[in-house]
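Tip: read the tokens left to right.
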């Protein structure tokens, strides 16, 4: 890994840590920390976003005091990294067969669904599962997911030429 890659990941993780302080819910760890990870996916299409996603969730949950316990938040951080990894695989495959922007929108929808509706199921490792609790988590997460995924997609448009020219 090049020094430049480490610096880029460090900068994105730092931005993620700052955005993790913008909370979307009273739960505490639902925040805008994933936006830099999704942005890294759109800009670089490699594993930088996976690393940023993991550490972004760790910072967000640490700032909130690990409300679901440290082990559960480590699991959620792994899941966040996995969501970005899945996005990377899908994006790199779709991009070969269709318009890049259409591929990115499809991946944004997939990541939104995984982040807002699938990842909350992991919280029930430490919480008793109930439909009202799941609905409560999803209610908070869909807005954060929409901002994180949508914001990354929008920000990637003007930033791609900059990244490409500084390759």
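Filled-in amino acids:
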């Amino acid at each position: 890994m090049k020094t430049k890659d480490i610096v880029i990941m460090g900068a994105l993780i730092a931005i993620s840590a700052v955005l993790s302080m913008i909370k979307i819910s009273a739960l505490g760890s639902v925040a805008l920390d994933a936006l830099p990870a999704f942005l890294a996916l759109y800009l670089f299409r490699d594993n930088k976003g996976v690393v940023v996603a993991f550490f972004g969730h760790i910072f967000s949950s640490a700032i909130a005091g690990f409300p679901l316990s440290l082990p559960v938040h480590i699991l959620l951080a792994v899941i966040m990294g996995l969501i970005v990894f899945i996005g990377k695989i899908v994006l790199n495959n779709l991009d070969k067969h269709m318009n890049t922007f259409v591929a990115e929108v499809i991946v944004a929808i997939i990541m939104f669904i995984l982040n807002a509706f699938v990842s909350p199921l992991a919280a029930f490792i430490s919480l008793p599962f109930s439909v009202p609790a799941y609905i409560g988590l999803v209610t908070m997460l869909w807005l954060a997911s929409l901002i994180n995924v949508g914001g990354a997609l929008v920000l990637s448009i003007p930033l791609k030429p900059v990244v490409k020219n500084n390759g």
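The CA atoms of residues 61 and 70 lie 8 Å apart. The chain has six helices and no strands.
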